[in-house]
Design goal:
heterotrimer, A mainly alpha (225), B mainly alpha (47), C mainly alpha (224), A: 225 residues, mainly alpha, globular, B: mainly alpha
Chain lengths: 225, 47, 224
């Protein structure tokens, strides 16, 4: 118990520090002024979401190989947490775009791909509710999770190509080219904070799923008795 | 201080989403813990 | 050798089952026609821009039709309990998938080719000058749809709400196919037709990646 609250407190501190850095340490952007600071939240969430989905992918592979329920528990936890971070990306994107471009949604390549990514993992979650038998549910969602993850680079690649055919505003303004070293440090620190949050949420969700597993075993014991 | 509200809104929404998610997990976890306790007790009584 | 002969025999069975009743083909063709007509109510089909919309609408219609057409793929086996028999009859479970996805690609391609002249007339788009390239993009796109669709229909056949689940799982997964195929088709149907080889490249990569994934994981999809 003590470990959990300490960890939680550490993560909250990290997040506050990252926010402070985003507001006060990172220099002002000439073009976008104050609003570009959403970048530290938006980009770090995007990277963390993808990290969570990668963990889900590995868990899916391990489940198909090993068939131990722990991997299924990790898979669903990582998918849900990844979805939370991806939702933040989709919400902060328009909030950033609106003051800069005057419109909420610009069909920017990265944001559109993130939307498809979001839909893929929502489908993953829905699939789980529609298969009743636990072993089959675990296997099928693992297999769909694998297909979904290998689709991700294809989605991002094809949509980026599609948008180069129709040039339009880019929400993030190519961070690769426009960020100065201080901004990069703040971004990396924000990502660290987000990874801490991801770990916290993952652990909590995993424990929930593990408890469900225990409950199932106990129930079956009770029925057998 | 242009667009300060947008940045604030973004951070509020983001932390809000994470907080709501964490709360929902915590709530489900405590409900499960109660269920587990009840089940353990009824099993022990049965034995 | 065994994979090829098993797949060939199963493919024959798939084709024979369909051509005996032809219900899948006819309903799919009519469905695509209905979608095309309804979609054209949503924009001005006679304008100059309609050419660009026409390509998108064609592929959307194919995708929707495919997500319905792929439902019976494994559902049929489930309802008649023939899946275990199928599994026992082959040495490599991948051959079951090969047979089904080849059959599905052929069915899709056939409906698309049947729709092309109708589409050409309705939207005043000349398809004959670029027919070779069109068939190429139709084939690669349909192959992608079939590979993913056949795999996912094995999952949806054993789930609840399968009529809604298959499109829900399939359509986001097929986003790259839709993007690439439409881009190529738009180029081919342009007033000065040109070939988007990058799009063809994407389709080839998608097909290769998912075919490999199906080969690696297909047997688990068929587990008891």
């Amino acid at each position: 118990m003590m470990k959990h609250t300490l960890g939680g407190a550490a993560v909250v501190l990290l997040l506050l520090a990252a926010a402070y850095a985003a507001f006060f340490i990172a220099p002002t952007d000439i073009k976008q002024g104050l609003v570009y600071r959403i970048l530290f939240l938006h980009v770090s969430s995007a990277w963390t979401g993808l990290t969570a989905f990668f963990i889900c992918f590995v868990a899916n592979l391990m489940y198909v190989w090993r068939r131990t329920p722990r991997w299924d528990w990790l898979g669903i936890s990582a998918a849900e947490v990844g979805l939370a971070f991806t939702t933040v990306v989709l919400v902060t994107g328009p909030i950033w775009a609106h003051p800069v471009w005057g419109i909420w949604w610009t069909w920017d390549a990265r944001l559109t791909s993130t939307f498809v990514l979001w839909l893929l993992y929502v489908s993953y979650l829905l699939l789980r509710t529609l298969v009743e038998e636990p072993d089959r549910r675990a296997l099928f969602s693992a297999l769909f999770g694998i297909f979904a993850f290998i689709d991700v680079p294809l989605v991002f690649g094809s949509i980026r190509w599609w948008r180069t055919q129709h040039p339009q505003p880019i929400v993030m303004g190519e961070p690769g080219s426009g960020l100065d070293p201080t901004m990069w440090s703040v971004l990396r620190f924000s990502w660290l904070a987000m990874l801490g949050l991801m770990t916290l949420l993952l652990l909590a969700r995993y424990r929930l799923e593990a408890m469900r597993g225990d409950l199932e075993i106990l129930r079956r014991e009770g029925e057998a008795a | 201080m242009k667009n300060l509200d947008s940045v604030f809104a973004a951070y509020l929404f983001a932390w809000g989403i994470f907080f709501v998610y964490y709360l929902s997990v915590a709530r489900r976890a405590s409900a499960l813990r109660d269920d587990l306790e009840r089940l353990k007790n009824s099993l022990n009584r049965g034995k | 050798m065994s994979l090829r002969s098993n797949a060939a025999v199963l493919l024959g069975k798939e084709l024979r089952t369909e051509f005996r009743s032809r219900e899948l083909l006819t309903t799919t063709v009519v469905f695509i026609l209905v979608i095309i007509v309804l979609f054209s109510f949503t924009f001005d089909p006679t304008s100059v821009q309609s050419r660009r919309f026409a390509a998108s609408l064609l592929w959307l219609a194919f995708l929707f039709a495919a997500s319905l057409m792929l439902q019976p793929c494994f559902l049929r086996e489930q309802n008649n309990d023939t899946l275990s028999a199928l599994r026992l009859s082959v040495t490599d479970p991948f051959s079951i998938f090969v047979a089904k996805l080849v059959a599905n690609t052929l069915f899709l391609l056939l409906t698309e080719l049947l729709m092309l002249p109708v589409f050409s007339i309705l939207f005043n788009v000349p398809v004959f000058p670029v027919i070779g390239q069109l068939v190429l993009v139709l084939f690669l796109g349909s192959l992608g749809v079939s590979i993913a669709g056949t795999a996912l229909s094995a999952i949806s056949a054993q789930a609840r709400m399968r009529e809604l689940l298959l499109p829900l799982l399939l359509l986001p997964l097929l986003a790259p196919v839709l993007v690439a195929s439409t881009q190529v088709t738009v180029g081919l149907l342009d007033t000065t037709p040109f070939m988007e080889w990058k799009g063809i490249g994407f389709l080839v990569i998608f097909d290769a990646v998912f075919l490999t994934a199906l080969w690696l994981f297909g047997e688990y999809l068929l587990e008891e």
